[in-house]
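#onboarding

Welcome to the new folks! Below is a worked example of what a typical request in this channel looks like: someone posts a single protein sequence, and someone else replies with the predicted structure as tokens. Don't worry about understanding the tokens yet, we'll cover that in week two.

Example request:
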Amino acid sequence: MSTDRPFCAILIEHDPKDIRSHSILRFFAEDLSEFEKTEFVSSIFESGSWILPTEISSSSGSIELKNYTKEKFHKIFDEWAIKRIEFSVSLKNEIRNFFIPINLLVEFREALFSVRNLDFPIELMSVFEKLVCESNSNYLNNYFENSFWLVIEEFNADEIEIFFTYFSNLYVKNNSLNLKSFLYSFLNRLAYSSKIFLLSQDFTNTLRKLSKSLKDNNNQNDYTTIISIFLIELIEKKELNLSNSSFDKIIIDSLSTLKKGEPENLDFYRFLERFNYQFKNLDFNLEANTLFENLQININLANNSDLRKKNALAQHYLKNTEKYCELLFFYLEHCSKILVNEIFIEFVRLIDELRVTFSTLLWFEEYLNFDIVKGKIIGTIPNGFNVEIEKDFFNKRVEDKKLSTLCTEEFVLQNGFGFLNFKSLKDFPKTSNFYNSGKNITQKSTKTIIDAAKISEPESFFISSVNYSSANKWNVPTFLPFNNTLSILISKYDLKAFFSSIELLLIEKAHEYLNLESPFLGKTTLINKVLYFNFNHDYKINFDRKQFWSILETIRPTLYNLIYLNHTKNEESFKKIISIYENNQIVTGLVTSMIKGGMVVEIFGKEVFLPGSQIDVKSVLDYNFYVDKLMDFRVIKVDYRSKNVVVSHKILIEEKNEILREQSLLKLEKGTVLKGRVKNITYYGVFIDLGGIDGLIHISDLSWGRIIHPDEIIKLDDEINVVILDFDENKKRITLGLKQLLIHPWDTFTKDLKVGDIVEGRVVDILNYGAFIELAFGVEGLIHISEMSWNQSQNNAHDLLNIGDDLVAVVIIFDRKDRKLSLSIKQLTSDPLFDKYAKGTKHRAIVIKVVNIGIVVQLEKGVEGFIHISKMSFIKKIKHPLEFAKVGETIDIYILSLNKETRKIGIGIVKNKSENKRIKKIN
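Example response:
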């Protein structure tokens, strides 16, 4: 949209294509003039949104705006429909994948709602009519299937009637196949909606006319006509019961026109079954045989055709594997019980033959077996990344499949690259951080991913699908990031991607008959990532158990051994394990592998679980160390229902340690020196294993000197001698010491140190009341805060010193016996107080406090003096200090006395010469 258009700013800020913006933009439009609304609607159309402008127009009272909107949208919609028709006509009916991009589906839905907003004008309905009648029917069906559910859900009953009646009347006049397909898709949605209870009688009459027309024109070899007729009856009567014999003729006639053994028939069969039809006149044994004949014909055709034809057949079966399986399962539900085994085995035999037949195709075998493909992201294509398959890997496959003669440039372009959807990024370790659910990936993050991929090693991918048709050649093949959990599951059960319902059914049924949970039951989401369809857990085949195991052994001996024989073996093993558990015995097992949370251990051939926390009493750093080792265990938990078993090796170590502990406790005594192993190191101390019993060395008992953390002097697993300092027999708590085994540094400290000596040291700790100075390792002296400075206003040691400072101090107290050492910094200099305030000198002072017996004055910050009331005057008697001075006044004072030890100053006041003489005489 051009930035010079009106309303550009608001439409950039609130994208009309985002439905969350609609309420804001509708509110904005309410305050516009009719002319401005027309411009606004035009700007929204240019942005690519159709619903919003038609909504604004429908809520407006302006005829001019409605006409403009209708004309504008008619032109846009007509051009859109012509492009869709031209494209669909160009498609060949043989194409099996009529793909419609999501943006076109969104535009089709917007068109449906826009026509509704404009009250279904005839010129717009005519465009719909042209689109329906002139498009390729197979291509058009994708629009119907992905959009009509929304129409039924969002349109009211009147709107549904208007829309449907238009096309119903068209079909009555012109019974085209496209119109019939349109009505079939619409009825399939409407019949199962609660809206059928709101439809009018007039609409019911319309349906009756349509039903009659469908019956008159029921000469096609498909089932959609009869289903449409039944759906009309369901809508009209609100019920449908096909067990009534009155429907037999029309159903039998329709069934007789169907090609036997085709998966397309399944929808019709399921519809009839849903409404109680009994299939009395249909031979499903014959149907199954026809299915097998068709499969055999195509196998022979593929084996004797060129690569193009083989590709086309492979694509047909790849796209329809689940339909074929469901058709077989439907046959098995309704065929003779004595033939179930024979039919199923023959179907599996043919599918196995198909798998071999298509294995010569370049990527078929990799897709079939979920083999890993190596490749690199090299660029972007619509909705995802272009992945180049590693050249050596690609050439090896071409050589193995003997396709070298076909390896043209076009062949490499179509087969040497793969497609990785943007949505797959969340499962791709190297790109998951760029994936943001619900938002389009940005150009910047795309470039980052590509740049990172180009310089990295080739990545591993699964092939999630292959497409051998000419349409959508960029989907050859589609990749998924490799997932180790999924790979292990697939490998274990030999799962196949082609006709995978066979293996999945057998695996699920085998576990069901053994009363076990299927390995895929909790992993449906995971397994569906690589399947071509959504896996169904509810197949209704009910083989006799004995029959089933016989079938499984015949057609899938690997699964028979893995599931049935292993289970039988596990049952015997489980009984032995229960006996071990109930008798609290020790059992030996082989650690076979690592899994999430612990290890797998094999005991009597049964796999049991060893949690990581139950391997050892100490932390396990390398789990691989235990793989393939025989170890003793005690069974600690048994789930009798699921037959899951949990074992522990740690508990045996703990039991052994408890015996050693009890033995060690008998030998404990204060002062005893023992050897131990460093078991654990914490910030507050070290735990020592003394042989089945643990003791703690507090950090303060590790060294005579200061340390920040125990690991400065001791390491994990060190063997050291320790002394027992204390032992609480009740709590079984042992306090150990290490430094107590060493000579105290005070005992070797210099012998001739005395009070008054000058020493050098380093600040190692600062507290509120002072700082500790280290003179030698383990020998510290204290400088009290009062000994740091002559200025008593500085009462915070942190303001004067920093940890690590080197300084010089004088010894003022030294007691070797009590290991007490006091130092001073300030005594290295003279007291400045006595230099400044000599006896008899005059100074100015501020009164800061008045009490009954005198006043307190301040000479400077930190220097104060007290004047007694008796020293205030020698002339007259002062009854109260307030007669002489008040707080805040500045007065003259004389220094009368000084005490160097207490640093106290005597102060007096003189106001005349006679008093001055008297003061001198006194002094």
